[in-house]
TrEMBL record:
Its cofactor is K(+). It is found in: Cytoplasm. Binds 1 potassium ion per subunit. The gene is mnmE. This is tRNA modification GTPase MnmE. Mg(2+) binds at S225, T246.
Length: 426
């Protein structure tokens, strides 16, 4: 396998920059830059092919099997000057034993060498992208192997169930002293319940990773844009007395008690002959329908809409005038806004509480596929022993679905999609 190299830290001026080499020729390539390579760590002077001084670097060396990639690795911790980096990368690029790494190639090698499973790779990608505390915590759980451990537990139980059934097949002509049906049914039931719970939490986990959407909706001039500006803490939306000022959806990214939230200010909902405003109203309705929470802004005298659900919050604008059901707020003075934000946060925290360790649609599909096989196996358990071979095959199919969670089966297309989102140095 080729020996690869890349900048492992962000581009740009910095105090320190790290260049990583991975592969069987990483040490010999490093020797051409510094002479003696330290056995584990040390400071070395780097020179180009002509003997010109490039930089003084702190060098880390990892033996095969002890590094992130599982290969022999050398890391050069350089001064983070763009000129220093350019000169070192130029020298490495001219080394015939090296080639530049592709996006995500270091992590891909870690997967191929058994240092990470597929779920951990996904967790690492999410950890790199994490912007809020909740995103960080969830990504760390997956990166640390939580989903892989869960899948391993399911695999052990299903293999046990399949082995018990195989025993009934092998000894079909002999007297079997123990009825395996109760244990097999218990094992299948345990796995199925755990999978169902995890699968149900994936949609919320995806929102946790990508951000929840909260849409502010209502008639023109009820104070939606003023409320958005107040919550955002800055002038995001234009506020005028003219009805229909907001014609497109305005988005504001927030960190709400550690949860990523996109706050949406939508066009005022009304009948209009203005073509552009009409398009804005239709777009507002579409985004509101997809939002996780809808904040309905009403005036004091307005009736509560009939289609209010668990994901809807009633807000009465202009708190000094508001009466009736809902949270009284004033975007101008800020009265009631903290109460509204706390209520939104509480609703989101309740949803996040149902999140397990499965975070992606791929995980949900694999688990639902496994559940179908387990349901077929359960149905077959009520039949005659002649069905044992068919039930065992259903269990083997379920095991293959579980294996796809952590990459034990062919997942080449999944890998290409995941690694395309990685930076070059990872």
């Amino acid at each position: 396998m080729d020996t690869i190299f890349s900048l492992a830290t962000a581009k740009g001026r910095a105090g320190v920059a790290v260049v990583r080499l991975s592969g069987s020729k990483s040490v010999s390539a490093a020797q051409r830059l510094m002479g003696d390579v330290p056995k584990s760590r040390g400071v070395r002077v780097l020179r180009d092919a002509a003997g010109e001084l490039l930089d003084e670097a702190f060098v880390l060396r990892f033996a095969e099997g002890k590094s992130f990639t599982g290969e022999e690795v050398v890391e050069l911790h350089l001064h983070g000057s763009p000129a220093v980096l350019a000169s070192v990368l130029y020298e490495l690029g001219n080394d015939p034993d090296l080639r530049p790494a592709e996006a995500g190639e270091f992590t891909r090698r870690a997967l191929e060498n058994g240092k990470l499973d597929l779920a951990q790779v996904e967790g690492l990608a999410d950890l790199i992208d994490a912007e809020t505390e909740s995103q960080r915590k969830q990504a760390v759980r997956v990166f640390s192997g939580a989903l892989g451990n869960l899948a391993d537990g399911w695999r052990v139980k299903l293999i046990r169930a399949a082995a018990l059934l195989e025993a009934t097949i092998d000894f079909a002509d002999e007297e079997v002293p123990v009825d395996v049906t109760p244990e097999v049914c218990a094992l299948i039931g345990d796995v199925q319940r755990e999978m169902q719970r995890e699968a149900e939490g994936v949609r919320v986990a995806e929102r946790l990773r990508d951000g929840f959407e909260v849409a502010i909706i209502g008639a023109p001039n009820v104070g939606k844009s003023t409320l958005l500006n107040r919550i955002a803490g800055r002038e995001v939306a234009i506020v005028t007395e003219i009805a229909g000022t907001t014609r497109d959806v305005i988005e504001v990214k927030l960190d709400l008690d550690g949860i990523a939230v996109t706050l949406l200010d939508t066009a005022g909902l009304r009948e209009t002959d203005d073509l552009v405003e009409g398009l804005g109203v239709e777009r507002a309705k579409e985004r509101a329908a997809r939002a996780d929470i809808r904040v309905h802004m009403l005036l004091a005298e307005d009736d509560v809409p009939l289609d209010i659900g668990d994901s809807d919050i009633i807000v009465r604008a202009k708190s000094d005038l508001s009466v009736g059901e809902g949270i009284a707020v004033s975007g101008r003075t800020g009265a009631g806004v903290d109460e509204l934000v706390a209520h939104i946060s509480d609703m989101l925290q309740q949803r996040v509480a149902s999140v397990g360790v499965a975070m992606r649609e791929r995980h949900r599909v694999a688990m639902l596929q496994a559940i179908v096989y387990l349901q077929a196996a359960e149905a077959g358990m009520s039949g005659h022993h002649a069905m044992a071979d068919l039930i065992a095959e259903e269990l083997r199919s379920a095991i293959r679905a579980v294996d796809s969670l952590v990459g034990r089966v062919d997942v080449e297309q999944v890998l290409d999609e995941i690694f395309s989102s990685f930076c070059i140095g990872k």
